[in-house]
Amino acid sequence: MYVGRLSLFLLGLLLFVNGIFAAHTFGVRSICEKDPCSHYCINANDGGVESWCSCYPNGGCKVNKFDVFFIIDAAEGIGNYEFSKQVKFIHTFAKMYEISSTSVQVGAMAFSGTPKKIVDFKECRSLEDVERLTQEVHKEEYGGRDSDIAEAFIHAARYRLKRAQGRRENIPLVVILITSATSMSDDKSIEIAVKEMKKQTPHVFAIGVGFLAKKEQLLDFTDRDSLRTKMLLSYSELNHKFLSQSDFCVESKETLRITEDQQTCDIDECREGSDGCSHICANNIGSYACQCPEGFYLSEDRHNCFWQK
User: How many whole angstroms from its chain centre is CA 143?
Assistant: First the structure.
């Protein structure tokens, strides 16, 4: 009886393991085949088993020549796990592009009480450089006490985003902030920090992780742009799929974006401001439609609204 139960247990365990293996090996492919994407079906590059639709190869952006700089949280409440997930996130991002001095360059720093360099652009000229340098990073080297985002922005703008660090002239710059704490920055410091960063780039994104991160405060650092301010529940959500679907990109005309059906790519004329609508623009796949507020009617040109007398 005991041997029989043990055999059943082992058989069940074997089937369970095989199921996990099958999910890793075949699950991604079957999802792509079941729900065809209009452009690209992306398989996770970070060990995940999910797949999803994207408008560009590897889940990346239309513009594939830019510098990207990460500002990651190393404050007192950040443990080794949370810090390592942020570092892995940098590596995951790098795997989506060609890393070189002529395409995408990566730089990073950590902030707590005192901002500290992790890597300069000139030190990351290949994916192997990014992988090697990020593997050498440990929380103990960067940890501090308080979280001061404004100080981190000012330090980055003045000292890390310069030509001496490998920053290229006339090449777009994307800055990505990751934090899980409420910043101790006062309003005046935030104002100065935002002005300093705007001198470097308009493409600033903020990722708040956990319940202590305050979206309203992070919006101050992204020029009140909710599309560039992302909120996550935990660091485990910092993955390839999140990167691919969050549009951490340089704004470019006629950029394809995934639509609500999560399968079809479309140019959002309303978001790009190329619609010509006088009041309200409603995007739809392949086109757009102008609409009017209550009390107005749409003229024959289908773009201008006039008061309904």
Answer: 23
